[in-house]
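PROTEIN DESIGN WORKSHEET
SECTION A - STRUCTURE
LENGTH: 204
TOKENS:
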């Protein structure tokens, strides 16, 4: 049946060559790296620029010019429980955050970078730092991650990524050898190859 075909395809493009398991491991490594970055002293609370006069009724702000890219991941200087989840970082759409700073209203972000963007209680404090608050109004400043360059990568993270990269090469080689014996449509082989390449690209 069609359902069986869809299930088999999902099995092959997500699980048969450990694609999903490798992505789960990658997610855990990324979380750990962010935790380490949080503990490093070079992290700085993100400071926004105030626009308009000192006495304008409603202050407007803008992001620093050096912040580029369509998304922005900010670390909580103190983890908070938001929407029943222990949150250590939030991913924002840069345009949405810039819009909120300028006009106010609602702001949403992905908690720990996963799932749907959730509604957040945020404000700008008197020293022009972004602050996110939990239900009890306890706040945490938001900070830019430290430099993400290879030189600054902790040894434990590098080792975990190298082990995952080795695993990916093993799975890819296994698939390359097995595909001659797999009695499945050619386009499925293409999709499995694409799913493996996608995992490889994310590990890189």
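SECTION B - SEQUENCE
RESIDUE ASSIGNMENT:
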């Amino acid at each position: 049946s069609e359902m069986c075909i869809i299930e088999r395809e999902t099995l092959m493009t997500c699980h048969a060559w450990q694609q999903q398991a490798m992505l789960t491991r990658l997610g855990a490594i990324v979380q750990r790296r962010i935790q380490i970055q949080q503990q490093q002293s070079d992290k700085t609370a993100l400071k926004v620029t105030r626009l308009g006069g000192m006495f304008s009724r409603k202050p407007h702000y803008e992001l620093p010019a050096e912040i580029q890219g369509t998304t922005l991941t900010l670390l909580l200087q103190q983890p908070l429980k938001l929407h029943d989840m222990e949150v250590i970082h939030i991913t924002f759409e840069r345009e949405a955050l810039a819009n909120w700073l300028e006009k106010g209203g609602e702001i949403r972000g992905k908690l720990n970078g996963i799932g749907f963007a959730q509604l957040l209680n945020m404000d700008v404090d008197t020293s022009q730092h972004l602050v996110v608050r939990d239900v009890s109004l306890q706040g945490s400043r938001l900070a830019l991650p430290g430099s993400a360059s290879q030189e600054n990568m902790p040894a434990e993270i590098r080792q975990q990524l190298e082990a995952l990269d080795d695993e990916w090469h093993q799975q890819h080689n296994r698939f390359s050898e097995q595909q001659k014996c797999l009695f499945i449509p050619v386009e499925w082989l293409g999709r499995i190859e694409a799913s493996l390449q996608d995992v490889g690209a994310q590990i890189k």
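SECTION C - NOTES
The longest strand covers residues 71-82.
The longest helix spans residues 155-178.
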